[in-house]
Amino acid sequence: MRFSALVVIGDGKGRYGYGLGKSGEVPEAIKKAIASARKNLKKIEIAKGGTITHPIKGKFGAAQVFLKPAPEGTGLIAGGAVRAILELAGIKNVYSKVYGSRTQANVVKATMDGLSQLKTYSEVSLLRFGKTVETKTEAEAK
């Protein structure tokens, strides 16, 4: 008999990741999952108001996750694995809906796929208007 552990980690400032660990012992499976999650860290830019910049749809297997920006004060309208990832990434205002399979691992991977498709404010303005608009956070990063 083997145990599997699915772990989601984040710093609340835009860094997040997940890991899957398997072992004959539960504590060992959790340790492996945490190590895997640390190797799999991603970074996103959080938009003004603690939300995402535009609507996205992530897919993995039969699971589909739809994420839509929400006004400040709305909170996280998400459940289960989607809520865990968004909270740990530091996103505070989002609407979400899961379609298809609700398997935890597939929902986590679909959410990660959706978040990887996010574009920054300046990338969106470049696509729409053909020119970049530098935000305060991007100016401070330079």
How many domain regions? 2
CATH topology of the largest domain: Ribosomal Protein S5, domain 2
Taken from the alpha-carbon principal axes, the silhouette is globular
Give the low-confidence spans.
none
- Percentage of residues assigned to helices: 25-40%
Strand content: 25-35%
Task: Explain this structure.
The chain has 142 residues and is an alpha+beta fold. The chain folds into two domains: 40 residues, no CATH class; 97 residues, 2-Layer Sandwich (Ribosomal Protein S5, domain 2). The chain has five helices and seven strands. The strands form two sheets. Strands 4-5-7-6 form a four-stranded mixed sheet. A three-stranded antiparallel sheet has the order 1-2-3. Strand 1 and strand 2 form a beta hairpin. Helix 2 packs across helix 3.
Record keyword descriptors for this entry.
142 residues; alpha+beta; Ribosomal Protein S5, domain 2; 2 domains; 5 helices; 37% helix; globular
Quick structural overview:
With 142 residues, this protein is of the alpha+beta class.
